[in-house]
Amino acid sequence: MPRVSQDHLDARRRQILDGSRVCFARYGYEAATVRRLEEATGLSRGAIFHHFRDKESLFLALAEDDAVRMADVVAEQGLVQVMRDLLTNRSEHPADWLGTRLEVSRRLRTDPEFRARWAERSQQLTTATRRRLLRQRDAGILRDDVDVDVLTAYLELVLEGLVSHLAMGQPGDDLGPVLDLVEESVRRHRAHAAGGTR
Predict the structure, then answer these.
(1) Domain 1-52 has CATH 1.10.10.60
(2) H or E element at residue 114
(3) Fewer CB atoms < 10 Å away: N or C end of the chain?
C-alpha cells in the first residue's frame, strides 16, 4: 500500500478545518452533526476522524488555528488591525471566524471540560498583543502612563465588545472612527506646549 505524502495529509487536514469552520459557524457546535460535517468537508466520517479524535478535538483545532492566524496579524500589525479586518471582511474567513469565536465564548461559559482544554490554547493572542505593545513602548510609540498588562486587557475587551456587536447583527460600517479612537488611546501623546498641556 503506497504511503500518503505529508503534503497530502496537510491538504486534507486544511480541507477538514475549512469545511468545519463553515459548518460550526452556520449551525453552532451542538447542531454541527457528523453528517453536516461530512457535507461541509466533502469527506467521510472516517476521513475526518482519522485526523481528529472527536468533534471536540476538531473544534479545538479549528479555534486554535484561528487564534494562531489572529496572533500572526497582531504580531505584525496589532490587535486593532484584527478588528479592522473583521469590519472590512479582509480576513480570510471573516464571518466564519466570527462564528467560531462566538461558539468558543459560549462553550467557555457552559462547558467546564472545554474551558480546561481551551485554557492551554488561549494565551496566544494575549501573548502576541502584549509583545507588540512592549515593542511599541520600547520604540516610544505606546503611552507609558498605563501598564502594558492593563492596555492588553483593554484591547482584548474592545475586541470582545466588537465581536458581540457583530454577533447581534449590528452594522459595523461606521465603526472605523471608533477603532481610530481606540488606537489613538493607547498611543503616547507628547505635550503640545511648553507648559505641558495636551
Answers:
(1) yes
(2) helix 112-119
(3) N
What are φ and ψ of residue 196, in 5° steps?
90, 10
Is the confidence at residue 37, as pLDDT, over 90?
yes
Contact status, residue 147 vs residue 72, Cβ threshold 8 Å: no
- 55-186 maps to CATH 2.60.40.10: no
* Closest residue by Cα to residue 114 from 14, 29, 21: 29
The full set of domain ranges for the chain reads 1-52, 55-186
Between CA 17 and CA 58 the distance in angstroms is: 8
Q: Within 13 A of 171's CA, how many CA atoms are on the CB side?
A: 3
Count of CB atoms situated within 10 Å of the CB of 64: 17
- Sign of the C-alpha dihedral, residues 27, 32, 36, 39? positive
- Nearest 5°: the CA angle 183, 186, 188 is 115
Give the model's pLDDT for residue 195: 45
- CA dist 99 and 96 (Å) reads 5
